[in-house]
Design goal:
It is elongated and about 65 Å long. The strands form three sheets. It has a six-stranded mixed beta sheet, with helices on one face. The chain starts with 5 loop residues before the first helix and ends with a helix. Helix 6 runs antiparallel to helix 7, helix 8 runs antiparallel to helix 10 and helix 10 packs across helix 13. 43% of the residues lie in helices and 14% in strands. The chain has two domains: 115 residues, Potassium Channel Kv1.1, Chain A (2-Layer Sandwich); 119 residues, no CATH class. With 305 residues, the chain is an alpha+beta fold. The chain is built from 15 helices and ten strands. InterPro entries: BTB/POZ_dom (IPR000210), NPH3/RPT2-like (IPR043454), NPH3_dom (IPR027356), SKP1/BTB/POZ_sf (IPR011333). It holds the Pfam family NPH3. Pathway: Protein modification; protein ubiquitination.
Length: 305
């Protein structure tokens, strides 16, 4: 199938009257809206219920979506530039999306967005949707207020205004590599958390012990890669060694419980080099051959150097 430009796609609906749908800055032809009455799931397939037969079958993971070409092509550059293959089992075309960011659940949300159903963005789904919209090339060229711009605005103005929402988004990026990295979602989240930890002077010294929901404690629950990114950024911002030390100690308590009794704490703060140095008794460490344990152990040891 030949590539279709955004101007050509817009001309498809020129003969029809246009109605504003939800966002007044976005106009959809009547016949596009009328394609979908509702969505229905049967076994491992999603069907668009409509009086107009579907002409496109899309497979994401082990889920198949039966839809119409036009709503997807009108918003997704990927669809307009991909040569669709005729389906061997039924009328219409078939497309398999390999390694789709966020999987079938994310594609379901995008499909409903393409049919102009309400979009509910949240810190839990915005990172997968941002990555998936990049995969599908859902740019302003194809639709004003398309999904890339919507998710970017949500991350910038909603997520990064709250460290709790930022933590939620950062955790959701665990299975979105390399998309979340390439789109700078991970970097922006880590930078915000590091900045907040370095500049929040209203947290009492003992709050880590008293409040499991505080910023320091929550940073210490991150996965290894993201935790290291936050701590490294904090050190680059010249965070107080006492703050960095508390977070690392909390991380050790969370992920190295078998050495909890042997955790000797912070030995010194390296005031000359502004580097944190601490020591952990290793006798019981060496007794464990667990890969996960070893990985967390090496993470903590890295901050000694």
């Amino acid at each position: 199938m030949n590539s279709v430009s955004a101007d050509q796609l817009k001309s498809f609906g020129d003969d029809a009257d246009a109605d504003p749908i939800c966002n007044k800055s976005i106009i959809f032809p009547n016949r596009v809206v009328a394609l979908a009455n509702s969505f229905e799931k049967k076994d491992r397939s999603w069907y668009v219920k409509s009086q107009i037969p579907t002409d496109l079958s899309i497979q994401v993971d082990d889920i198949t979506f039966k839809a119409h070409k036009f709503p997807l092509i009108s918003k997704c550059g990927y669809m307009s530039s991909t040569e669709l293959k005729p389906s061997t089992s039924e009328n219409g075309y078939h497309l398999k999306l390999e390694n789709f960011p966020g999987g079938a659940d994310t594609f379901e949300t995008i499909l409903k967005f393409c049919y102009n159903l309400p979009l509910d963005l949240s810190p839990l789904n915005v990172a997968p949707l941002r990555c998936a919209s990049e995969f599908l090339y859902m740019t302003e060229e194809f639709e004003a207020g398309n999904l890339i711009s919507k998710t970017e605005a949500f991350i910038t103005f909603v997520v990064l205004a709250s460290w709790r929402d930022t933590l939620t988004v950062l955790r959701s990026c665990a299975n979105l590599s390399p998309w979340a990295e390439n789109l700078q979602i991970v970097r922006r989240c880590c930078d915000l958390l590091a900045w907040k930890a370095c500049n929040d002077n209203n947290i009492p010294e003992d709050v880590v012990e008293r409040n499991d929901r505080c910023l320091y404690s929550d940073i210490a629950t991150l996965g290894i890669d993201h935790f290291m990114r936050v701590i490294t950024t904090m050190k680059a911002r010249r965070a107080k060694p006492e703050i960095t030390g508390k977070i690392i100690m909390k991380y050790a308590e969370n992920f190295l419980p078998i050495i909890d009794d042997d955790l000797e704490g912070i030995r010194g703060y390296g005031l000359g080099k502004n580097e944190l140095r601490f020591s952990v008794t290793r006798e019981r460490m060496e007794e464990s051959s667990s890969l996960g344990f070893q990985e967390h152990k090496e993470t903590i040891e890295k901050f000694e150097r």
